[in-house]
Write a structure and sequence with these properties.
It contains 13 helices and 14 strands. By secondary structure, the protein is of the alpha/beta class. Helix 7 links the parallel strand 4 and strand 5. Helix 2 packs antiparallel against helix 9. The longest helix is centred in the C-terminal third of the chain and has 19 residues. The protein starts with 7 loop residues before the first helix and ends with a helix. The relative contact order is 0.16.
């Protein structure tokens, strides 16, 4: 079997006619920058999220940078964020001259530990960036309470959890990305909602912030050739917007497929003492951007090598937490400062989960993982 960690070609072939037609229409219009498909995607995504403003941009990293730029922060203002996540979350903080303050994550949901946030707040703290990691929401009720108590802004990094819902105690729910002040999205090809290249978006219910964000993403301009503030050039390509308009229609179906795969994996692995399956928070749905296991009493290298001999791909997200990365050593964190993030980086492994996995492949994957643990 040639199992893939992600099978973009098979997914494309299943919606080929719609995708090809969308691309053809953009090519024929030749309106490649800020074309009709971009405007259409903004509206479609606003309707999907039930949010007032969606501003498309070049990629998820740009989305985070522009979001921070829109808050009129000052040099060395502090931003609280998790260490166990992708680098772009901290990268933009440092590039803007702000101070990144890392906190640990929960050892079962991998999301930011709200119990640690309040310990790091001081007079310079301005922003919290909760990351909805691997498809599951951070514990937003508590984070919102903290932000209100200390008058802090929340930027949700929702790059990995588009379509996830967060439930409040009154049974009401909202999509992740509509809970804080601003949210950021990546449409990188591996994401649940993905284009065929780079793409991103920023969402907010604050009209004033939206106006500022639109200006920053367009060189700081509201009127052509007149610049009110220093901005950047970050636009979603019209071709990519056309692709996203097609794929957005299938997003809930794709997420349900990944959830069903995760349910299948859970049913096979939950009895294995040396495996910890992903926790499902009672406050959140899970859209399973990744299906990430925690290995216990097991050599990760041996496990991954065994899977490789069976032609089963696997991956590590993430092998070194951000607070221990060489590029952020100037922040003066050391081994032991964030023990959960450090433990996870040494013990997590992700196995294939995507919309095109078939029953035979799933059986093969689970049978071989069970075989490994029965032998060991």
């Amino acid at each position: 079997m040639k199992i893939k960690m992600l099978d973009l070609r098979a997914q494309y072939l299943n919606i080929k006619e719609e995708i090809d037609l969308s691309i053809k229409e953009v090519l024929e219009s030749s309106n490649f920058i800020n074309g009709d498909e971009v405007k259409k995607f903004s509206k479609n995504f606003e309707n999907y999220l039930k949010v007032k403003n969606v501003i498309p941009c070049g990629n998820g990293t740009d989305a985070l940078q522009i979001a921070l730029m829109s808050l009129n922060l000052e040099k060395n203002d502090e931003v609280i964020l998790p260490s166990f996540t992708f680098v772009s979350t901290v990268e933009v903080v440092v590039l803007l001259g702000l101070k990144a303050v890392f906190v640990d994550v929960f050892d079962d949901t991998f999301t930011i530990n709200y119990k640690e946030i309040e310990k790091k707040i001081n007079s310079k703290t301005r922003v919290i960036i909760p990351v909805h990691l691997f498809g599951q929401s951070a514990e937003m009720k508590e984070i919102l309470e903290i932000s209100k108590k200390y008058n802090l802004k929340i930027i949700e990094d929702n790059a990995q959890a588009v379509g996830t819902s967060y439930f409040f105690t009154d049974k009401k729910y909202k999509k992740t990305g509509t809970l804080g002040d601003i949210s950021c999205y990546s449409f990188f090809p591996s994401k649940n909602l993905a284009c065929f290249g780079d793409g991103g978006a920023i969402a907010t219910n604050d009209d004033n912030l939206a106006k500022r964000i639109r200006s920053i993403a367009n060189h700081g301009s509201v009127e052509k050739y007149f610049y009110e503030k220093i901005g950047v050039n970050s636009r979603l390509d019209t071709l990519q917007a056309g692709i996203l308009n097609v794929k957005l229609k299938y997003l809930d179906k794709y997420n349900e497929k990944c959830k069903s795969i995760a349910d299948f994996y859970d049913s096979k692995f939950y009895k294995i003492e040396d495996l910890q399956i992903p926790k499902r928070s009672k406050n959140s749905t899970h859209t399973f951007h990744q299906y990430t296991l925690i290995l216990k009493n097991t050599n990760r290298k041996d496990f991954m090598e065994f899977l490789k001999t069976k032609n089963i791909p696997s991956a590590i997200y993430y092998p070194l937490p951000l607070h221990l990365q060489k590029s952020y050593s100037f922040l003066n964190y050391k081994i032991g400062d964030l023990p959960v993030s450090e433990f996870l980086s040494k013990n997590v492994v992700s196995i294939p989960i995507h919309t095109e996995l078939i029953k035979e492949e799933l059986n093969y994957i689970t049978e071989n993982i069970l075989l490994f643990f029965n032998k060991n």
